[in-house]
Design goal:
The complex is a heterodimer of chains A (311) and B (318).
Chain A: E1 2-11, E2 14-24, E3 29-33, H1 40-47, E4 55-60, E5 63-64, H2 69-75, E6 76-79, H3 91-101, H4 106-119, H5 135-146, E7 153-157, H6 165-180, E8 184-189, H7 192-196, E9 201-206, E10 209-215, H8 216-225, E11 227-233, H9 238-246, E12 250-255, E13 260-264, H10 268-280, E14 285-291, H11 295-303
Parallel strand pairs in A: 3-8, 3-9, 6-7, 7-8
Antiparallel strand pairs in A: 1-2, 1-4, 4-5, 9-10, 11-13, 11-14, 12-13
Helix pairs in contact in A: 3-4
Chain B: H1 5-16, H2 19-41, H3 55-81, H4 84-90, H5 94-98, H6 104-125, H7 127-130, H8 141-168, H9 172-201, H10 211-218, H11 222-231, H12 238-243, H13 246-250, E1 262-263, E2 266-267, H14 270-293
Antiparallel strand pairs in B: 1-2
Helix pairs in contact in B: 1-6, 2-3, 3-6, 3-8, 3-9, 4-8, 6-8, 6-14, 8-9, 8-11, 8-14, 11-14
The chains are: A alpha/beta (311), B mainly alpha (318).
């Protein structure tokens, strides 16, 4: 449905997007994750026809963007990360205006805009002025606007940014509904948990390059291959740290405030052996457990923890 | 025919608030007051002096209104269009328009139309006041129509200049300042350049300055066009008609009419050259502005990497 092939966008010598490739099947939600400035917005703007790539290819429902941008624009609904609204325009007028922009005949506009407002739960705000809406409502209105021409593909750039937890949950519900409607969605965020629940696939991008791409399950499977062991001991942690560092199956042993973490590669028997050794060595073990692999840990691992607060 | 949605939306926003009728009311009251004071000034309304009225009083009022409306067009249009595109950019609504299939020409034309329409509304609303001169005669309907056409073309040109700067600069304030500087150049810069040319190059000339030479400098000036337009009508606006003829009066002005350039058998008058310039500038700047806001200019298929050269980005092992 949406195919991006070897996309490159250069600004002088700086490469904002560096050979990006991914594909999204119809009815799938693809989460585009990466720290701020990774190239997510640039990629989305290229797909929406707002930026010219230095090289590469974008194909939407079989139509090449470079060959027929008008046709591609018909198939794409774009919601930017930052957007404004027109003062003194009511919600229904706002929708009618964009319906007019997309060339929808006047008599058909209401039939199209009403269900969309219902979808984003703004029917009762139909006659309210747009600038009187809350941020969450404006985001939902912008989402409804991006669907006014019934596009196959939705490009949503940080649709949940700046929303309170309740509004985020509402946004997720709408996305699930859109998925059920068979829409293909590319959604970006720098906050991973936001996407993990709704996405079928995820791509992690850093410095313009795709570093990991696959279904959520695949990525979690990769995460579970690299396990973290967390050990808590009573009293002095020094002998425990020393013992763990000596174990060949453990790497990156690091002491926290009251625990010790270590990456390990192996199975339960290896773990049991380590525990046995610690007890035999007289180390007072309080807790000895394997941490679950998570998307966050992958993201942190890949991006070097630079966006720790964001994840 | 599909109605430009930008025009529809902007007119709706502009016209439904109390500001629009209030502005029209204030404007008409102001114009009415000018006419009233002019009539008073000629003692037409004086109960002690019945013999002072002549058609010239009405014509004089008409002249004042005509000049006033021209100044309105000249000084208000850049303000209306100077923020048209940069304002959309500042409001972060431009991308939402450009990612649709609405052509950039439609966006630009819609913006210019709305700006001009508002000014034209003010001028049209003043028609009944202008109409008072018909009680006294001396003005033909064709004169008024020609004057209106001149206003529209002038507003179009100045509006296009405003829009052009609005696409050139990201900040509305900068676009507005540049628009006004350009308008000031057209109004006064051309006069200064012309004056310098006459003073320096024609000082020892044995031949008089011709109209063609004057027009070569002054044709972009809306006041020059206006003076020339009103000169040929059944009334005359002395100030603007005369001010740009100083070159002739100093250097054999009586011959200027005979020296007007003739193109295809038509004697080219200054207002014709001015209107021609305005139309040319409008079309050119509309095209350039539409091109400037186009998000992806030209085709990018030439630069596209051929599928055979594609290299797949290897995944980083987690």
């Amino acid at each position: 449905m949406l195919m991006v092939e070897n996309l490159v966008k250069k600004y002088g010598k700086f490469k904002a997007v560096d050979g990006l490739s991914f594909e999204i099947e119809q009815g799938h939600i693809y989460g585009f994750v990466g720290p701020n400035g990774a190239g997510k917005t640039t990629t989305m703007k290229i797909i929406a026809g707002l930026l010219r790539p230095t090289s590469g290819r974008v194909v939407v429902s079989g139509t090449d963007l470079s060959r027929d941008p008008r046709e591609v624009k018909k198939k794409i609904g774009y919601m930017p990360d930052f957007f404004g609204v027109y003062d003194d325009l009511r919600v229904d007028e706002y929708m009618n205006f964009y319906a007019g922009v997309y060339g929808i005949p006047r008599q058909e506009r209401e039939k199209i805009t009403n269900p969309l407002l219902e979808l984003v739960d703004l029917t009762d705000k139909k006659e309210a002025y747009v600038d009187s809406l809350s941020r969450g409502m404006k985001q939902r209105l912008c989402l409804a606007r991006s669907m006014i021409h019934n596009p196959d593909v939705l490009i949503l750039d940080e649709p949940a940014s700046g929303l309170d937890p309740r509004a985020r949950i509402e946004m997720k519900e709408i996305l699930k509904e859109l998925k059920d409607m068979g829409k293909t969605i590319l959604i970006s965020s720098h906050i991973l948990p936001e996407l993990a629940e709704v996405c079928t696939s995820i791509g992690i991008i850093e410095q313009g390059k795709m570093v990991v791409s696959g279904t959520v399950e695949e990525i979690l499977r990769k995460a579970s291959r690299k396990k973290t062991l967390r050990v808590k001991v009573l009293g002095d942690m020094e002998p425990a740290v020393k013992y763990l560092q000596e174990q060949p199956s453990l790497t990156g042993v690091a002491a926290g405030s009251d625990y010790i973490d270590a990456d390990f590669d192996g199975d339960g028997a290896v773990l049991a052996g380590i525990l046995k050794g610690m007890v035999a060595g007289g180390i007072p073990v309080v807790s000895f457990a394997e941490l679950e692999g998570s998307l966050e840990s992958i993201f942190m691992h890949i991006t070097g923890g630079g966006e720790g607060n964001a994840v | 025919m599909r109605f430009n949605p930008i025009i529809e939306k902007e007119l709706k926003i502009k016209m439904r608030s109390w500001k629009a009728p209030a502005l029209i009311t204030v404007y008409l009251v102001f114009l009415g007051l000018i006419i009233f004071l002019n009539f008073l000034g000629t003692r037409l309304l004086s109960p002690y002096d019945y013999g002072q009225f002549g058609p010239s009083t009405a014509l004089n009022s008409y002249n004042i209104l005509a000049v006033f409306q021209l100044l309105l067009v000249v000084f208000i249009t850049p303000a209306m269009t100077g923020s048209a595109v940069s304002g959309e950019r500042e409001r972060q609504t431009l991308d939402l328009l450009l990612c649709t299939n609405l052509s950039t020409h439609s966006v630009i034309i819609g913006k210019i139309f709305v700006s001009i329409a508002y000014i034209m509304l003010l001028i049209t609303a003043s028609l009944p006041i202008l109409g008072t001169v018909f009680f006294y005669g001396g003005i033909r309907i064709t004169d008024i129509l020609l004057l209106f056409a001149f206003y529209i073309v002038t507003a179009l040109a100045l509006g296009s200049i405003g829009i052009f700067y609005s696409t050139l600069f990201k900040k509305s304030s900068v676009a507005m300042v540049m628009s006004y500087l350009t308008v000031l150049f057209l109004l006064f810069g051309t006069v200064i350049v012309y004056g310098i040319w006459v003073r320096i190059f024609m000082r020892y000339s044995t031949t008089p300055v011709t109209l063609a030479q004057t027009m070569a400098f002054m044709f972009p000036n809306p006041l020059y066009g206006f003076g020339s337009l009103t000169e040929g009508m059944s009334y005359n606006i002395p100030f603007f008609g005369d001010i740009f003829r100083f070159g002739f009066s100093m250097y054999g002005g009586s011959q200027y009419a005979a020296s007007a350039p003739v193109i295809l058998g038509i004697t080219l008058k200054p207002w014709m050259a001015n209107i021609g310039f305005d139309i040319f500038v409008s079309i050119l700047l509309i095209l350039i502005s539409a091109y400037r806001i186009k998000p992806v200019k030209g085709l990018w298929r030439k630069k596209r990497v051929k599928s055979g050269e594609l290299k797949v980005e290897s995944e980083k092992t987690v």
